[in-house]
Amino acid sequence: MTEQPEIASLSFEEALSALETIVRGLESGQQKLEDAIAAYERGAALKAHCEAKLAQAEARVAAIVARADGTLSLKTEE
């Protein structure tokens, strides 16, 4: 799935908030079928964007190493 350009520019928090809004709308059951399908498609793109942002953050955190003296440094590839 290709990420929509406007979604690609969202921060994790912005994308998550938009996704939560879509979920609430879908759960209400008040949308027309075509609108619900479009919302679901956007929600899927937002979910993928959030997952990618989380993976990036996890990689950054995993690269931080605590030294024996308590200081932190970045893990270097060996």
Strands of the widest sheet, in order across it, are 1-2
Q: Characterize the main sheet.
A: 2 strands, antiparallel
Mean pLDDT: 88
Helical region count?
3
The total of beta strands comes to 2
Rounded to the nearest angstrom, the distance between the terminal CA atoms is 34 Å
The stretches of 5 or more residues where confidence is low (pLDDT under 50) are none
Our Rg estimate from Cα atoms comes to 18 Å
Strand content: 5-15%
Shape: elongated
Helix-and-strand structural type: mainly alpha
Name the helicity range: 55-70%
Helix and strand element order: HHHEE
Short description:
The chain has 78 residues and is mainly alpha-helical. The chain is built from 3 helices and 2 strands; from the N terminus they run H-H-H-E-E.
Give a verbal description of the structure.
The chain has 78 residues and is mainly alpha-helical. It is built from three helices and two strands. The protein has helices at 5-8, 12-28, 33-62, and strands spanning 64-66, 72-74. It is elongated. The protein starts with a helix and ends with a strand. The model has no long low-confidence stretch (mean pLDDT 88).
